[in-house]
Design goal:
This protein is of the alpha/beta class and about 350 residues long. The protein has two domains: about 170 residues, no CATH class; about 160 residues, no CATH class. The chain is built from seven helices and 19 strands. The chain has a 19-stranded parallel β-sheet that branches. The radius of gyration is 25 Å and the shape is globular.
Length: about 350
């Protein structure tokens, strides 16, 4: 019996002295794609977590991309890009953050130390915002938050409670329903022009843009896995990109946009050319759709070259560029210009990449 007790005590002691699994230190980009995806490591670089349940609980010295149905960010990152249906932010972001989803919640421990853009149907803001925050949403609640800079709201129903402190200015549309506690605003309260004629129009537009953005990310992810050499060729072709190179791509895209429909129309007039015209029409729309993917990748690649002196990862660069295009498309007044430029330049990029790959424009 005593011998059995000694063995049992040794067995229990082994479990007691075992140290918990520690997070690893990773000196390169790390990505994880799974149904339940989570990164817990300390990463000296950027990270991407994509899945139905996507969680980032580690530390990233770069950009953290967290994308999924249910998104959770409890870690620490230099920059944050989060997109999904339900998003919960509890961690620390040293610089800027962009968050888009349906239901978005900030925790009391949330600390975003610089500028923040939030796009969602139901948004709840807590914690600390180190500078300015712009919120696009239907139902917006700011509950006990400490915001150092300005708050710009584009929504229909806004509630700011008494524990909130906004040190800068607060602006919101004149047609919004707003409840603001006394002494919550230290700066000015500014009413902007109405942004909608009914309660649903604004959010329908925003969510439509959001799901279009998510679709582009999915298409890019599949394309980058199936044909990564296309994007490697984009890097080589546009390693040096200036105004003349951009104008050249724009011109090629414009010519494609004008000439191809004319060719399709001529072929359609001939009975023998109808099948070919239908094939060209399908390819035309496919190229037009993919143009944003390629222009977004080029944008992300050039900005990454300029501002991040780190190894370039294809997936991160593409998502980064598409996210920037998405943000620009949310800004009234320039969204149409951004869409036209990204489409035409993207078509020009596809033209260069495909023809050089086929060896037809040497």
């Amino acid at each position: 019996m005593k011998r059995f007790l000694k063995v049992l005590m040794v067995f229990m002691a082994c479990f007691m002295v075992n140290s918990p699994v520690m997070a690893e230190e990773v000196n390169h980009f790390k990505g994880k794609v799974d149904n339940n995806a989570e990164i817990k490591d300390d990463i000296n670089g950027s990270a991407a977590v994509i899945g139905n349940e996507a969680k980032m609980s580690g530390k990233a010295d770069g950009v953290s991309f967290v994308i999924g149905n249910n998104v959770s960010f409890t870690g620490n990152s230099e920059y944050l890009v989060a997109a999904g249906n339900s998003i919960e932010v509890k961690g620390i972001v040293d610089k800027d953050a962009f968050i888009a989803g349906n239901i978005i919640k900030f925790n009391d421990k949330t600390e975003l130390q610089r500028d923040v853009i939030v796009v969602g149907a139901n948004v709840e803001i807590r914690g600390k915002i180190g500078r300015n925050i712009s919120i696009y949403g239907s139902n917006i609640k700011i509950d006990g938050a400490n915001i150092i800079g300005n708050v710009k709201i584009y929504g229909t129903n806004v509630n700011i409670d008494g524990d909130t402190v906004i040190n800068g200015n607060l602006s919101y549309p004149e047609d919004a329903i707003v409840r603001v506690a006394d002494d919550a605003i230290k700066g000015e309260v500014i009413k902007t022009d109405a942004i909608q004629n009914n309660d649903d129009k604004f959010m329908t537009t925003m969510m439509g843009k959001f799901w279009a953005f998510m679709s582009l990310i999915l298409v890019f992810a599949v394309l980058s896995l199936a044909a990564p050499k296309l994007f490697v060729r984009v890097q080589k072709e546009y390693d040096k990109f200036d105004f003349n190179k951009g104008l050249e791509s724009f011109t090629k895209g414009l010519m494609f946009l004008i000439i191809v429909p004319i060719i399709i129309f001529i072929l359609f007039l001939m009975s023998i050319g109808i099948p070919l015209s239908l094939i060209l029409l399908a390819l035309y729309f496919i190229i037009m759709y993919l143009s944003t993917v390629f222009s977004g990748y080029l944008l992300g690649y050039k900005l990454w070259q300029k501002f991040f002196d780190k190894d370039i990862n294809m997936l991160v660069v593409g998502i980064f560029g598409l996210a920037i295009l998405f943000i620009f498309n949310l800004i009234p007044g320039i969204s149409f210009i951004v869409s036209v430029l990204s489409t035409l330049i993207g078509v020009g990029i596809i033209y260069d990449v495909i023809l050089k790959k086929m060896g037809l424009n040497d």
